[in-house]
Amino acid sequence: MAGYLRHCSCNASVFIWILCLLIFLATNCVIAQLPLPLQNEYWSTNPNIQHKAAKAILKSGLPFAEAVQFIKQGRTYSTSVQRGFLKWDRSTPEGIQLFALIFIPYDYTPEKKWPVRVMLHGDISHKDAFNVFRFIDTTLEAYNKVEEIRIYPSGYFAARWYYKIQYENMMYLLNRVKQQYNMDENRVSLGGFSDGGTGVYAFSNYDVTPYSCFLSYIGSCGSLKVLGTRQVYFNNFRNKPMFIENGKLDQTFPPSVVLPYVNAILQLNNAASFMMIDSCDHTLRWIPQYADTINHFISYHPRNPYPKHLVWQTESAAIFNRNHWVLINGIGKSPSNALSLIDYNEVITGGQYVPAFRRDSLAAIIDVTATGNTIEVLTRNVTKYTLLLSAGQFDFSAPFKIITNNMLSFEGVLQPQVQSLLKWNQLDNDRTMLFAAEIELVPGKLYGQK
Fold first, then answer.
1. What is the pLDDT of residues 217-226, one digit of tens each?
2. Contact (Cβ atoms closer than 8 angstroms) between residue 262 and residue 248
3. What's the chain's Rg over C-alpha atoms?
């Protein structure tokens, strides 16, 4: 009996070994179809080289499924990389200096994906481009135990959080980290305190696509009514989990200023959490007591790269016009509008409704819900929009049905396209959010109508 068991155990071990070998070969034979130099060129940090490599891959006729496997496997990360605190410093063509501290865990290894935590500091009225050093102590021993990548950009008078330049800077920093370190694309949280807490509201109004959740500490959403260069929309705060904290004794951003805006967010976002700490003023002394709560909130809310329901509002069809797989490509008066879509732009102050944010330009709203392969779209002031469709979200062997404002916009089968896959992967640099097709539609135009 014992011999029989040993024989079975041996056979089972051989079977498992063979199965693992087959899986390994199945995975790597895909990559073997592409010459190694071409693979390396596709993952180049030079966008021109990568673009040429994408053209070559497209010309090679690589099947879609194999192309997906190639991208999911991603670049080969080096083990010989810097760890600890890195100092990244650069200047824009206009001469504005942008500095950031990047922390890479001391025990970093490329064999696993690492979560990323972005933190925006306060007091950005200073003229020092290295302002971040006033808030981040790089000598703390606690960093020896940090098990996540940290990004600490520096904000100052020439590069405030609610300026376009910091949005572009953040996209640059995330992309550069992705190129060098094996980060987890679905666990990128963005937080901030004081001016940085206000900046969190700005970033969640710019583009929510890269982030898993937002955390604002002792910030003021209402400050964006007069700060920055663009309009702000409560609709955009509906898309991601939010953790908001303010102090009841805060004289910089007192409850009377903060609460009207927080209450409006809580009414629209079921995934928003709020703490008003009675004993706290404009300080972070409460952080150690609630560190576990914050860490749990972040770990409990990874990003879903393909949300089934999305809402977005913007005044620009050129920038700040995307939410994951939905883009607004045209804004203007449209003959087709969903009356149910509301531009929530009021808060209650002193018992009266007052405008929450300025409205200088016409804004468009889009609301998209996916159920199986049926996509229902509601629009207002949208003249054109694009849907990015993923094989990880939809069944490409079945027909799609897209309805815009109760009118059939498209019905039929779509073929996965390697061209779309490579195009959006180059833009996003994301191994977990891959798109097989894109379709541009016009509200008010019936499917089949020329």
1. 999 999 999 9
2. no
3. 24
Q: How many residues does the chain have?
A: 450
DSSP alpha helices (H): ranges in 301-440?
A: 418-428
* Per-residue model confidence as pLDDT tens digits over 21-71: 444 444 444 555 799 999 999 999 999 999 999 999 999 999 999 999 999
| Average pLDDT of the segment spanning 353-357 | 97
Q: What is the pLDDT of residue 229?
A: 83
* Cβ atoms 173, 153 nearer than 8 A: yes
Q: Which residues pair with 137 in a beta bridge?
A: none
Instruction: Supply 279's token pair.
Output: 């004993």
Buried b (16+ CB within 10 A) or exposed e, 267-280: eebeebebeebeeb
Q: Which residue has the tokens 């969903």?
A: 338
Q: From the centroid of its chain, how far is CA 176? A: 15
For 187-198, how does the pLDDT look when each residue is reduced to its tens digit (9 = 90+)? 999 999 999 999
* C-alpha torsion 255→256→259→261, nearest 10: -130
Q: What order of strands is seen across the sheet that includes strand 400-404?
A: 309-314, 364-371, 374-380, 400-404, 407-412
DSSP letters, 6-43, are HHHHHHHHHHHHHHHHHHHHHHHHHHHTS-HHHHHHHT
Give the whole-angstrom CA distance, residue 93 versus residue 74.
Answer: 31
> Rounded distance, CA 367 to CA 377, Å?
6
Kindly give the residue spans of alpha helices, DSSP state H, lying in 33-138: 36-42, 47-60, 64-73
Q: Is 296 exposed, middle or buried (0-12, 13-18, 19+ CB in 10 A)?
A: exposed
